[in-house]
Specification:
This protein is of the alpha/beta class. It is built from 5 helices and 3 strands; from the N terminus they run ααβαβααβ. It has one domain: Alpha-Beta Barrel (TIM Barrel). A 3-stranded parallel β-sheet has the order 1-2-3, covered by helices on one side. Helix 3 links the parallel strand 1 and strand 2. It starts with a helix and ends in an 8-residue tail after the last strand.
C-alpha cells in the first residue's frame, strides 16, 4: 500500500541491490552461490519490473513525484482499499471514486508508466 513518496522509495530500496537500493546481497542459488554474481546483478537491474500498488487517497499528494522515480515501472490501483480510504468502501460507481481513479490514470499514463487495476470475479456455483 503505497501512500507517499517515502513509501515508493522504500519499495525501490527493498527491491534493488546497492547502489540503487539496499536489498541484501547474500549467496543464493539464483546467482550460483557467488560464481555468477556479476551476471545475476546485471540481469536483475535490467529485468526487474517494479509495480506499486496504490490503495489510498493520500498517494495523490505525491503521485507526480512518485511517477518520476526511474525504477518505478507502473501502478496498480487497489479499488477496495482506495474506495475505503475515500470513506465509500466498495462504492465503485460513486463520483468521488471515479474522479480519483481518473486522476491516477491520467497522471500515470502521462508519465508513460504501466497502469492496472486489481479485479475480482466472484465464484458462483
Amino acid at each position: 500500500m503505497i501512500k507517499s513518496y517515502a513509501d515508493a522509495m522504500q519499495a525501490v530500496q527493498n527491491v534493488f541491490y546497492p547502489p540503487t537500493g539496499s536489498r541484501g546481497v547474500g549467496l543464493y542459488r539464483a546467482q550460483k552461490y557467488s560464481f555468477g554474481f556479476d551476471e545475476y546483478v546485471k540481469s536483475h537491474v535490467e529485468e526487474t519490473v517494479l509495480i506499486l500498488q496504490v490503495e489510498h487517497i493520500d498517494v495523490l499528494g505525491d503521485l507526480d513525484k512518485i511517477l518520476k522515480i526511474p525504477q518505478v515501472d507502473g501502478i496498480i490501483i487497489g479499488p477496495y482499499d482506495l474506495s475505503a480510504s475515500l470513506g465509500i468502501p466498495g462504492k465503485f460507481e460513486d463520483k468521488k471514486f471515479k474522479e480519483t481513479v481518473e486522476k491516477i490514470e491520467k497522471k500515470t499514463l502521462a508519465a508513460k508508466k504501466a497502469l492496472g487495476v486489481t479485479l475480482f470475479s466472484p465464484i458462483t456455483n
